[in-house]
Amino acid sequence: MGDAGTITTSQWWRKPFAMLQTNLREIDVDMDVGAVADYIKQYGASAWLIGIGGIQAQYPTELPFHSRNERVAQRQSGDLISDALQAAHSRGLRLLARMDFSKVSAERAAEHPEWCYKSPSGKLQTHTDSLVSVCPSGDYYQARMFDILDEVTHRYDVDGFFVNWTTMNEEDYYKHYHGVCHCSNCVRRWSDFSGGLEMPKGPKDDHYAEWLQFSRDLIDELTGRVRAFIANKLPSACLILGKSADIMFHEANNAVGRELWHHATTEMVSSWISYRPEVPVLVNSTTFMDMPYRMASEEPAHFAQYLLQAISRGGYPSTYMMGFPGRIPYMCLDVGSEISRFYRKWQSIYDGLRPCARTGIVRPDRAHMAQVQYDAALSEFRGLYTAMQELHIPFDIIAQEHISATAENGGLKRYQVLILPNTGKLSADDVLALDNWVSAGGRLIATAGSGIQEGGFIQLKSLPTHRQLTVEVERAALWSSYYAQPQPEANKHVYTGPMVPLYGASHLFEWKTGSQGQCKLLAHAPFSPPEKAYGNIQVEQRGYGSWAYGAGKGVVIPFTVGRGYHELGLGVYRDFYAKILREEGEAEEKLACNIAEQVEMTLNTNGSKTVVHLINMSGARKQNFGSHLPVVGGTISVGDRAVTAYALRSDQSLEVRNGEIILPTLDLFEVIVIEGL
After folding, report:
1. Rounded CA gap, 419 and 554, in Å?
2. Beta-bridge partners for 282
3. Phi, psi for residue 188 in degrees, rounded to 5
4. Which residues lie below 8 Å from residue 431, measured CB to CB, with a gap of 6+?
5. Is 178 within 8 Å of 142 (Cβ atoms)?
6. Looking at 422-566, which runs of residues are DSSP E strands?
7. Segments in 371-501 forming alpha helices (H)
């Protein structure tokens, strides 16, 4: 079948499609498969994902270790899957098999304890109905899974497979954290991988970041084997799973107790599409609130964001429900159907959609740093992300773990500007890739501790800093300290605004000879009682610095400006960052969008067409999205080029006046197709 990027005529999944998943329960064997298939087609989907087996077979299995749903015998045919396959194919739908090998019955676990996840204290992980978690290192995944796949591929000519919950089971359904698996297979594999390092128990331990890479490699290797097996048995069937699969997978969901990141879906899709734009990304969007509340409908406005953010970045939209249509009243299905039908109507626009932004921001990788460093880096990333989204600067997400691979496949050449948000120590391959990219003409903006290794050594030759002298992260030491433009007179208590508070982390650097600097530090002074709140003296410490490297430029912001914006929300952080982008790292884009900051804008191309997605995010709330406000007034500036523009959702041609495309009133979303740029 070749590499995931190789296209053959049998690979039907290369064309955009929408999917609907019926996550079957034992009691759902009585479904009217014809009625369900009709619903899926009317919904706007062309593919049906149905539960087949793994934990429990929805067909008459002959394998002794594969538990069977005994209720299947109630059907006249005795085989739910054969019925569904006939119903789907007779209506022109693809049928894909959902498999889940993450758990086995208590009886199987007792017979094969070596299959099971084992906590650092030696305990098993149990669930409802006495199910027991198994480990991807063990023989159930490594061998018995292929026996089950062999049976399924022999019985059913399905169009694809999705393997659910292929993880290392650190956390269970009840959100209890159990730790890193310490089964005998994991211990042996870890020893070989690490060269004998102590195995961590959880995120706070040494070597946990290395363990994350170990676990990724293990899952990727297993995924590759599954993909090869399926390609051999059913050459026209795809695998939806992870990095080694035919289709990358993201489940868009909310969660009890997890802080909502309102851009999670667009971020994830962009990070994969920017890395390998030829590999499809499927976004399976959850119709219910969270696993503990599977019958509680997600807010329709929130569910809509999953699908809209997916398609705006080139992902495939999918709807994920429990049971089958008509049994549980999910209120979000109407808006889901509206968006799915829109996607189907304009499939020609989405077939071949590719990102074209010339700015990229690197998303930090947990496997590269300790938890406390990662939390700080993630906050920095999200603050800079939000700032650029509000400023309507087109940008893509580049996963830190994909930097060197994106350079190797030529993907970095598209970018004029890259942002490193407090990413910490980089790999040697990433350093080489970034320095070469800057030397060839790129502009690299690094904040806080990006590209710094032990001893304060600056890894990137392209940056204007020679070495790190100190770093301050204590809150009290940073309070009442600011960056600002130079004062008229350094020793007088008259300041030139705006005042940018120092927050999060501040790095003191030795700057390279020949580098240039802007803004200065107003050093710490008393802030209370009010009678004593004065004395901030301007010192020679740059707010940012830059220098030329080859044909490009390196820029350093020595403090966490993004974290300040994310956690404090003061506009001066965004404005400070925007000033640096304008003066040191503004990419040359085809267009500029002028609309309310509550609108997320993404930029793609499809052949000669430029495609602009506008998503109204004015309904953002703390833990979801609610009702949005219509956005009146907005333009897209295209200069003096003779262009035409069409709005897909409102289905109308748009006026172009003096180099400005006049946008219609924005409801939930709009897609603008521009010709002539």
Report:
1. 10
2. 249, 316
3. -65, -45
4. 451, 459, 460
5. no
6. 443-447, 452-453, 457-458, 465-472, 482-485, 496-501, 506-511, 516-522, 538-549, 552-557
7. 371-391, 403-408, 428-439, 475-478
664 SS3 class: coil
Q: Which amino acid is at 634?
A: G
For residues 449 and 369, what is the distance between their CA atoms, to the nearest angstrom?
12
pTM for this one?
0.95
Q: Which residues make Cβ contacts (< 8 Å) with residue 618, sequence separation at least 6?
A: 596, 598, 599, 628, 629, 631
- pLDDT over threshold 60, residue 6: no
Q: How far apart are CA 585 and CA 418, in angstroms?
A: 9
Structure tokens belonging to residue 65: 């270790």
Q: What is the pLDDT of residue 261?
A: 98
Q: Positive or negative CA dihedral for 36, 38, 44, 47?
A: positive
Q: What is the CA radius of gyration of the chain?
A: 27
Q: Report residue 580 CA to chain centroid gap.
A: 26
What sign does the dihedral 129-135-136-142 (CA atoms) show?
Answer: negative
Give the up-direction half-sphere exposure of residue 578: CA atoms within 13 A in the CB hemisphere. 14
Q: What residues have CB less than 8 Å from 609, skipping those under 6 apart? A: 349, 673, 674, 675
- pLDDT tens-digit series, residues 143-185: 999 999 999 999 999 999 999 988 999 999 888 999 999 999 9
Query: Could you give the C-alpha distances from 51 to 28, 77, 151, 409, 524, in angstroms and in order?
Result: 10, 17, 15, 36, 61
Residue pLDDT, tens place only, 81-90: 999 999 999 9
Tokens (6 digits) for 637: 């500036």
Give the CA count within 13 Å in the CB-facing half-sphere of 449: 23
Give the up-direction half-sphere exposure of residue 501: CA atoms within 13 A in the CB hemisphere.
Answer: 17
The encoded tokens of residue 515 equal 């580098």
Distance of CA 670 to the CA centre of its chain: 22
Give backbone dihedrals phi and psi of 228, rounded to 5 degrees, phi first.
Answer: -65, -40
Looking at the predicted structure, is the pLDDT value of residue 491 above 80?
A: no
The DSSP bridge pattern shows strands 482-485 and 496-501 to be: antiparallel
Residue 462 contacts residue 504 (beta carbons within 8 Å): no
Tokens for 499, please give them: 């005042």
The pLDDT tens digits for 359-397 are: 999 999 999 899 999 999 999 999 999 999 999 999 999
Q: What is the pLDDT at residue 242?
A: 82
Q: What residue ranges define each of the domains in the chain, with the CATH number in brackets?
A: 16-101+137-176+198-352 (3.20.20.80), 357-584 (3.40.50.880), 592-675 (2.60.40.1180)
- Strands 443-447 and 552-557, by their bridges, are parallel
Q: Cα–Cα distance between 214 and 192 in angstroms, integer?
A: 10
Burial-class residue 540 by CB neighbours within 10 Å (0-12, 13-18, 19+). Answer: exposed
